[in-house]
Amino acid sequence: xxxxxxxxxxxxxxxxxxxxxxxxxxxxxxxxxxxxxxxxxxxxxxxxxxxxxxxxxxxxxxxxxxxxxxxxxxxxxxxxxxxxxxxxxxxxxxxxxxxxxxxxxxxxxxxxxxxxxxxxxxxxxxxxxxxxxxxxxxxxxxxxxxxxxxxxxxxxxxxxxxxxxxxxxxxxxxxxxxxxxxxxxxxxxxxxxxxxxxxxxxxxxxxxxxxxxxxxxxxxxxxxxxxxxxxxxxxxxxxxxxxxxxxxxxxxxxxxxxxxxxxxxxxxxxxxxxxxxxxxxxxxxxxxxxxxxxxxxxxxxxxxxxxxxxxxxxxxxxxxxxxxxxxxxxxxxxxxxxxxxxxxxxxxxxxxxxxxxxxxxxxxxxxxxxxxxxxxxxxxxxxxxxxxxxxxx
Length: 393
Prior knowledge:
By secondary structure, this protein is α/β, with parallel strands linked by helices. It has 13 helices and 15 strands. The strands form four sheets. It has a five-stranded mixed beta sheet with strand order 5-4-3-6-10, with helices on both faces. Strands 13-12-11-14-15 form a five-stranded mixed beta sheet, covered by helices on one side.
């Protein structure tokens, strides 16, 4: 598969694709790559002249001028005026991404009790937001076709709220999602083989990119949070998922299920010969509903709930140690309720990781909370669109 074809799959988010291109490629692949290279430089740095772009990208001035003319005609780049300069000669004209020309719709389907969405600018700043509760009048959470109807209603409301042309719609969904935006399985929502990307694109007439919520969260942390190129983000909610970046590229896996660590069996309490047991998987200790239930029970009994958080952190450390050891990751990021994850749980995770990996190989491993708060999947959905439509992140 060529570079161009890889970038075309799943809106530009194929396996092994580096998120931030920095070097030139072969001539037969060059134009799309070089276009992304120019846009990426402007997106991250802003206010660059054509000469600046040529120098920073390694492209020729002729190539840069040609690409800039094309991007100006499409309204994706604007001229800001001449740079103030004391040097002789005509001052250079500064360029930037046209950050006010388009808006992005982001949708987060990962919360256990509601669907959330936002209209954002190209920098991921939320302009308008909306949400739809999952529970119906009798208190049961919507699943299957009812849940799909709520997604469609939310997207319709967000499209109506946009005030400039919409660059695209990004959706972060729980479950296993393939590169066509089909949700292969999302048990908590009752979805199997749901072609959500195709359905929403047909409904709105807009470009739509659907991805796993943890992958979207990892993109948000990378783009807006300054995360390292080798990083694992653990998304703790109704279930447990992880987004994995290796050498700056998302890892999908052979069946698009990379990061589904919530279903990994981490309980060896019944002996090493115990076969797969859903009561011994990570979600049994770490999911938000499980943690909240355990804390309520401890409070009712009048005992300290800290051991519940510590044990959850230990189980997470057990699951992460082989991954950290195999990939030599430098950073683990936790995303979820801060009051549950930050403190005893995170401390126990780090302690377990230290005990189960070689210190000299992982001495600089850091574990921290996300910098993106509860909007991480929404902002990651924006990155899905930026990367898929413009090749920037």
